[in-house]
Specification:
Layout: H1 2-46, H2 50-57, H3 67-80, H4 84-95, H5 103-117, H6 122-133, H7 138-153, H8 162-179, H9 186-196, H10 202-214, H11 218-225, H12 230-243, H13 247-260, H14 267-279, H15 284-293, H16 301-311, H17 315-328, H18 335-348, H19 352-365, H20 372-385, H21 389-402, H22 407-416, H23 445-451, H24 455-461, H25 466-475, H26 479-491, H27 503-507, H28 513-519, H29 525-536, H30 556-566, H31 575-591, H32 597-606, H33 608-617, H34 623-628, H35 633-652
């Protein structure tokens, strides 16, 4: 009996193994066939052969994870062939699958649009459903526009309740305009509102003005701003006149609003107007001085004080300026930066105990602001100077752990590993930029589509993911857009991923590194790559306001002089010619500045004359004290950015 039982168990195990093997085989076969047939169909689709593509997408096995994407593509083929009913059927199949993936809301939205175009009354229900199920999506915002069109369409049918219908349509268009003033339907929504002939409130006119402003139609924006109350809309008046280059009027509106009406204006709007105002003067100092003389009492007063302190060169006056700012606005938006500047001044004055006290206060009050990595780093240096070595080591490690992608992480690493030198790496191993995620939320559908180079569908399914948008821009050759999108996306993350994360390669790509390696000469190739990234974001046609051009942003006169001295040829926007000349120029700066990369980087932005003069004017004992005392704020920030980028390249690659 016992032997019989063992035999039965054995049989069950064998059957189970065979069954699993059968399903695995079928799954693998289905996936392989799905990839093969989807790839063939996609090639036909890209050739605009929609009839054959429709048939080919239909051959993707139902059990393949690509089936929903194939149905979606079939719907698109049918739409392009003007077979809207067939397209709707394909979208319905996707919606009937009970999937929760990102392909569902876009399918529902596309189906609703097709129904709307076919005058199918059920479209309204679909658009309302989108707003209910996906309230924070772009599809929900756009649904407001279509619902507005559906309601206003009833007026043409001669409804008895025209006033109610007008109001309902107006509310939908207004909702769209409020949530997407720069959206593709913004101007259309405004036109529809005008057609309704409804009496507009002050807020309604302002909303329309903002919509026109966001779409670059400043004259039309002005027309509707004139229908609003200046006391409430002064910042919009000012910004619009600055855009129209009516500087006299813009200055008037700015001063009018800042003096008496800033309290009821959003701070960001006030700061933006102040920036426009300052830039309208021959020099920043002149604009800031004019604002200082206005003795502002409301929103923006702290920002003006902060801008003024940034312009102060003398350390003594700078400390007094920031101290006044901090004491006057201890909980303001710029108080953290003000306290940091008081702290660093005390450090440079070698008043370490005073600085330490301020550092403790800063880290307690501002645990994660822009200046926190700097304060943490200098708290380590203070602890070291006070011979508190364990505390110093703890602070250095904290910078590396909590702020790994900062300039101060670079400096902390140096202090921990001094034997490796200031720039421990001079070359990197290039790695390919690939899809930034190894897995996705849609059973790896997005990853598979990326592998198959279905960029358009990936872009649609992942509109909110800036890293994926960055990757798509990269694949399409838009390197500058790609780098900026990835940088902004990484800045938005509270906690940064490890350096092995694929997203870092998008933030710090190695474009033109092969050319850099060829023309680097005696230079550190990672530094040259970092300069290119910070100067032009890899745009060979970049041109600054003062005329600097190309990848390394060389002035034409400098470029021509280097070419003449070294017998080079080529256009300033040529990748090879620009990098070759830039490398030689950098090497010349370095030779003229005791062969130190730190000084050469500083001179690349601030000029070699300025750097040599700082050697005698500044009192410093180490790298940190030199950098923190660079008189030009732009140059100081530039040095930190380039060295931060060097640090990131060294870690990622």
């Amino acid at each position: 009996m016992r032997r019989r039982r063992k035999f039965d168990i054995y049989i069950v195990i064998v059957i189970f193994v065979i069954t699993v093997a059968f399903f695995v085989h079928n799954y693998n076969y289905s996936e392989a066939k799905g990839v093969e047939r989807y790839s063939e169909a996609l090639a036909l689709y890209k050739e605009n052969n929609f009839e054959q593509a429709y048939q080919s997408f239909g051959r993707v096995p139902s059990s393949s994870t690509l089936k929903q994407a194939a149905l979606f593509r079939q719907a698109r083929c049918a739409t392009n062939l003007d077979k809207k009913e067939s397209a709707v059927k394909k979208y319905k199949r996707i919606l009937g699958s009970h999937s929760k993936g990102s392909i569902v809301p876009i399918s529902l939205y596309n189906m609703a649009i097709l129904k709307f175009e076919n005058k199918d009354k059920s479209a309204k229900k679909d658009f309302i459903n989108i707003i209910k199920k996906y309230p924070y999506s772009d599809y929900a915002i756009a649904s407001n526009y279509y619902l507005g069109l559906i309601e206003s369409g009833k007026l043409e049918e001669g409804s008895r309740h025209s006033d109610k219908i007008k109001q309902k349509a107006f509310n939908y268009f207004k909702n769209y305009l409020d949530k997407a003033p720069d959206g593709r339907f913004a101007v259309n929504s405004i036109n529809e509102i005008v057609k309704l002939g409804i009496k507009l409130s002050n807020y309604d006119n302002l909303l329309i003005a903002k919509g026109y402003y966001a779409n670059g139609e400043y004259e039309k924006s002005k027309e509707y701003l004139n229908k609003t109350t200046l006391t409430e809309s002064w910042s919009d008046f000012a910004k619009n006149e600055f855009r129209l280059k009516n500087i006299e009027k813009a200055v008037y509106y700015t001063e009018f609003g800042l003096k008496d009406h800033a309290m009821n204006t959003k701070p960001d709007d006030v700061y933006e107007v102040i920036d426009y105002y300052v830039s309208s003067f021959p020099s920043r100092k002149a604009g800031i001085a004019k604002l200082q003389n206005m003795n502002l009492k409301s929103v923006g007063a702290d920002y003006v004080s902060y801008l003024n302190c940034n312009e102060v060169v003398s350390n003594d006056y700078k400390e007094a300026c920031y101290r006044t700012l901090y004491e006057k606005y201890p909980n303001g938006r710029f108080s953290g930066e003000a306290l940091y500047n008081i702290f660093i001044t005390k450090y440079l004055q070698k008043k370490y105990l005073d600085a330490q006290r301020l550092g403790f206060l800063h880290l307690k009050k501002f645990p994660n602001v822009k200046s926190t990595p700097a304060v943490t780093y200098y708290m380590a240096k203070i602890a070291y100077k006070l011979k508190h070595y364990e505390s110093a080591d703890s602070y250095f490690k904290k910078v590396l752990a909590e702020f790994p992608d900062t300039y101060y992480a670079f400096r902390a690493s140096y202090n921990i590993n001094k034997e490796n030198g200031f720039l421990p790496y001079s070359d990197i191993v290039q790695k390919p930029i690939v899809f930034p995620y190894k897995k996705s939320l849609d059973n790896n559908l997005v990853v598979k589509l990326a592998y198959l180079k279905d960029y358009d569908l990936v872009e649609e399914l992942c509109k909110k993911d800036k890293f994926i948008q960055s990757w798509i821009a990269y694949e399409k050759g838009n390197y500058t857009i790609s780098a900026v999108l990835a940088r902004n996306a990484m800045d938005e993350l509270d906690k940064k991923p490890p350096f092995e994360d694929l997203r870092w390669r998008l933030v710090y790509p190695t474009h033109y590194y092969d050319i850099v390696s060829k023309f680097k000469g005696s230079n550190n190739s990672i530094i040259l790559e970092s300069i290119i990234k910070e100067e032009s974001h890899f745009n060979p046609y970049a041109r600054s306001s003062v005329g600097a051009s190309g990848l390394m942003q060389l002035m034409p006169a400098t470029f021509e002089e280097v070419q003449k001295n070294h017998g080079l040829s080529g256009d300033i926007n040529s990748e090879k010619a620009n990098i070759a000349a830039g490398s030689l120029y950098y090497a010349g700066l370095k030779r003229g500045l005791v062969n130190k990369d730190l000084y050469a980087i500083t001179a690349y932005n601030g000029g070699i004359g300025s750097v040599t003069s700082w050697f005698t004017k500044l009192i410093y004992n180490d790298t940190d004290e030199f950098v923190e005392q660079i008189p030009y704020l732009e140059t100081k920030n530039y040095v930190k950015k380039v060295l931060r980028t060097y640090w990131m390249y060294s870690n990622i690659y």
